[in-house]
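Bench notes, afternoon.
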Amino acid sequence: MAKVTEDYFDSSARKAETVLGWNRCCVQLGLHERRTGIVCIDNYQARGRHKSVEILPNLESDIRSLVDAQAQADPKFQSTFLYARISARAVREALVNVHGYDESELPSRQTLGEILNRLGYRLKKHKKPSL
């Protein structure tokens, strides 16, 4: 892109954008790289939010210690999943109360539910008591 811009558009990224529809910022970056000889490397992998398990390395083991006491196997033995009789909201509260996590550092209730599913636990809906 930079070579074409230099040859046909007098090194004008704006002209290349207008005529060819290229992104002006990309063309300018390429022109700077050709002029200086230094290749700019984008650290794309470092962007975004990291997984909560990476941020809190003991989170999975703490969740297992809480949920294993409340888990039961499938009564018909049709699946290998363990059914948790504890909700993701209760797991979050127990992590704060029992293991001393801070509310702000813990992932949301929905994310904790996904972590429970990934660990092999399935949440069953509680049946309402009949009156």
